[in-house]
Amino acid sequence: MATGPVRLPGGYGPLILLIVGTYVLATMSARPWTVSLLLFVQVGTVWYALHGSGARAGVRRCATAVFALALVAAVWNLVSRNGGLVGGTFLAASALYVIAPISITADLARRRDVGREMMLGALAAYLMLGMAFAFAYRCLGVFQPGPFFGAAGEGTLADNLFFSFVTLTTTGYGNLVPADPPGQSLAVLEGLLGQLFLVTAVAKIVNVWRPRGWPPGAHETPPEASADTPPQG
Q1: For position 209, what pLDDT does the model report?
Q2: Selected residue with higher pLDDT from 22 and 221
């Protein structure tokens, strides 16, 4: 028998706290124990997001497998200087960070009322999108030959997070700029997705929002009269 979506009872409120915790840990991840803790919290955040938004069973199983791998990688990072397992787990978690906002957005699209959960879910998807691009910038900085930010240097994970959210909101301070085309193209994509997300989220909320006390359908525009309908006199 096929199982339907599984949702966690806490809703999107705890997910916001996990995202904020991940951001704070990422800005101070310098020592091995902070990197291990960041890895654990990062994958746990994705796991909660996918289960809380009712993602498909295959995606949830994948997140559970990566979560188990994160436990092993976190311990490995404390006892060994070989970061291969940690880097691979970060890469897998970053891929799930891209899937999680899609799952949350699909869950919000199925809702027919505007409430606290829709607001928190939209905020969580927006924040996770910025986090996903930040980790992607970090991966590019590791694999490309030169410094990611050119004359400004490689940058820290905190710099990647700052640049990601500045790009996502199209603020564009200009103090950090990717030096090579892969990073520049990714920044353009993030800016476009950030604007597209805001437009679609606001449109969804306006479409289903109804002031308290209004009867159903009162805010909808009535259909235009048919041309074949004779005028009433």
Answers
A1: 60
A2: 22
Q: Round the average pLDDT of the chain to a whole number and report it.
A: 76
Separation between Cα atoms, residue 36 and residue 73, nearest integer Å: 7
Condensed to tens digits (0 to 9), the pLDDT of residues 154-198 reads: 888 888 899 999 999 888 788 888 888 888 999 999 999 988 888
In three-state form (DSSP H/G/I as H, E/B as E, the rest C), the secondary structure along 86-146 is HHHHHHHHHHHHHHHHHHHHHHHHCCCCCCHHHHHHHHHHHHHHHHHHHHHHHHHHHHCCC
pLDDT band at residue 132 using 50, 70 and 90 as cut-offs: confident
State the Cα–Cα distance between residues 106 and 53, nearest whole angstrom. Answer: 8
Distances from the Cα of 20 to the Cα of 11, 76, 157, 218, 228, angstroms? 16, 25, 15, 39, 58
The beta-strand segments (E) located in 134-221 are none
H-state helical runs in 144-180 = 157-168
- Of 8, 40, 16, the closest CA to residue 26 belongs to 40
Dihedral sign, Cα of residue 194, residue 116, residue 15, residue 60: negative
